[in-house]
Amino acid sequence: MVEEGGVDGGSGEAEAESAEEWLLQAQKLVPVALEKATEVKVFPGRWKMIVSKLEQLPSRLSDLFSHPCFSKNVLCKEQLHAVLNSLKEAIELAELCVREKFEGKLWIQSDLDSLSGKLDLNLHDCAVLIKTGMLGEATLPLLLSGCSLQQESTDYSNIRELLARLLIGHMEAKHRALDSLVEILKEDDDNVLSVFGRNNVAALVQLLTATSPRIREKTITIICMLVESGSCENWLVSEGVLPPLIRLVESGSAVAKEKAVISLQRLSMPADTARAIVGHGGVRPLIELCKTGDSVSQAAAACALKNISAVPEVRQTLAEEGITRVMISLVDRGILLGSKEYAAECLQNLTASNEALRRSVIAEGGLRCILAHLDGPLPQEYAVGALRNLVSSVSMEILLSLGFLPRIVHVLKLGSLGAQQAAASAICRVCSSPDMKKLIGEAKCIPLLIKLLEAKTNSVREVAAQAISSLMTLSQNCREVKRDEKSVPNLVQLLDPSPQNTAKKYAVACLGLLSSSRKCKKLMISYGAIGYLKKLAEMDIPGAKKLVEKLERGKLRSLFSRK
Q1: Which of 64, 151, 407, 481 has a CA positioned 20 to 30 A from the CA of residue 536?
Q2: DUF7032 domain: which residues (predicted)?
Q3: How far is CA 223 from CA 184, 196, 204, 216, 424, in A?
């Protein structure tokens, strides 16, 4: 847990002196502080630790001084000022302990622990200034007393300074830097994002666990901006952002929850990260947010769970956490349409290949809920996809009683292209019995499927042709296809022998069933079916050879009859 400390930064007095003067003072005070510390006899363990840290200061100060930009960087001056304060405090406490004139043991022990922490921070910050290359940025002093910034603060050097302040100093200084960064990001996010480095990302991830809710909110706001911009996602995950994000979803403020779940929504898209979210216990907080969150948080949580459900091996874990009932409820009563669609896609993913999960969704009332959802003016793909996955797991009687056929017709008429494809696929799965084929034909699905053969997408044409070929095995449906003037030309177009056309075998099957009609045969010949079929026969497409022979015999008879 990151703890908050006092204010870190240069005072007016510090800025009046040069960096060289501050360094000279520090170099003079280090041996004094060491001498005083070694004279102390009380609290030997604590003073031994303080001495070891004081002994490391000269080399860190030397590293700072040897840098060519040492005297120009405001952060360097601030750091020297902080080191001087620590040295003065060390001398003062050592004198008290040597004389053993202090108010109480607990009091002085607390002061010594505080000094040890400050020295740790001094050593850490000196190392960071060198390691990150911040001393190479010759910057001017920046006003961090509030959120307002002058125009020049959007320069790269000032942005880098703000980012460096996330890595060094006490918590209050980091808080002011966060305020400034949030304001800059609102106005000029490209400049900030272009100079973000991995160290800055690591610092932000650490600040997500600050004790101050205000700091956590500012930090998650910046992280959310980074994630939404598509920047630094891999760095964020590798630096361990997922556990604190999940904790914020679980118990953060309303603002922090919203930003955290939006971040998880985006981060959960890669399968590896989705698995990691499950491994870190992220499923239950996301499910709870689907039940209790506001409209934005609910939609983002549903989308994150939808992304996670796309990974087959975690679906059982999702089910065990109770996702089925929650997604069904969202499809039925989600605040936003987006929440409903994400929930429908999640149900589609869950039911894609697991019969136990299909039965669970049906048992929870999912089938009825999905069918009711399809009554909307523009049915979308994922709800129909979930329906397609479920239809094989219930009886024909149940499907009909729930209004399956009117909804399928509605989707074929008004749904998106993806929804229409899923509807045609659902028809393929349910028309295993003559009774069901008869009912589907009587519902006027066939003309809609024939029209779907004109779709630009090959996969849509394929499933439409497959549905028609299955329905045509019933004689009355075959007559319905014969009566449709678009059936033959659309089917002949699907005889294209190119490898991209995967509908050709179903087109051959349909045309074979139509070939008993003289009118249909003439139409096939006039639209060039024979040329296509010869090529398909060479490719050993089932039924192509027999159909081309039948058409050629009919063509010869037609020629003789003319003579």
Answers
A1: 481
A2: 25-134
A3: 14, 11, 7, 10, 43
Long-range pairs for 189-197 at CB < 8 Å and ≥24 separation? Answer: 189/225, 189/229, 191/154, 191/156, 191/159, 192/159, 193/226, 193/229, 193/231, 193/232, 194/156, 195/156, 195/159, 195/160, 195/163, 196/163, 196/226, 196/231, 196/232, 197/132, 197/163
Q: Show the tokens assigned to 463.
A: 């499933």
Outline where 100-170 has alpha helix (H).
105-131, 156-165
Name 230's Cβ contacts closer than 8 Å, sequence gap at least 6. Answer: none
CB neighbours of 448 closer than 8 A, spacing ≥ 6?
409, 412, 413
C-alpha gyration radius of the chain = 36
In 3D, which of 60, 117, 58 has the Cα closest to residue 89?
117
Question: Exposed e or buried b for every residue in 231-262, given b needs 16+ CB within 10 A?
Answer: bbbebbbebebbbbbbbbbbebeebbbbbbbb
* 89 contacts 115 by C-beta, under 8 angstroms: yes
Which SS3 state, helix, strand or coil, does residue 231 take? coil
Please give the structure tokens belonging to residue 400.
Answer: 């009909």
Q: What angle do CA 155, 159, 164 make, to 5 degrees?
A: 150
Q: What share of the chain is helix, strand, coil (3-state, %, to 5)?
A: 75, 0, 25
- Alpha-carbon distance of 518 to 502, in angstroms, equals 27
pLDDT in tens, the chain (563 residues): 344 443 344 444 444 468 888 889 999 999 999 999 999 999 999 999 999 999 999 999 888 888 776 776 778 888 899 999 999 999 999 999 998 877 788 999 999 999 999 999 999 888 888 776 666 654 434 434 343 444 444 455 677 778 778 888 788 888 888 988 888 888 766 767 777 788 888 889 999 998 889 999 999 999 998 898 887 899 999 999 999 999 999 999 999 999 999 999 999 999 999 999 999 999 999 999 999 989 999 999 999 999 999 999 999 999 999 999 999 999 999 999 999 999 999 999 999 989 999 999 999 999 999 999 999 889 999 999 999 999 999 999 999 999 999 999 999 999 999 999 999 999 999 998 999 999 999 999 999 999 999 999 999 999 999 999 999 999 999 999 999 999 999 999 999 999 999 999 999 999 999 999 999 999 999 999 999 999 999 999 999 999 999 998 866 555 445 44
Nearest residue to 226 (alpha-carbon basis) of 251, 211, 208: 208
DSSP category for residue 4? P
d(CA 351, CA 318): 12
Nearest to 524 by CA among 502, 549, 561, 503: 549
CB atoms within 10 A of CB 13: 8
Taking residue 395's Cβ as centre, other Cβ atoms within 10 Å add up to 8
Q: CA of 194: how far to CAs of 21, 162, 197, 202, 219, in Å? A: 35, 14, 9, 16, 18
Please state the pTM of the whole predicted model.
0.81
Interatomic CA distance for residues 453 and 94, integer angstroms: 89
Residue 548 to residue 561: CA distance in whole angstroms: 20
Instruction: Tell me which amino acid residue 89 is.
Output: E
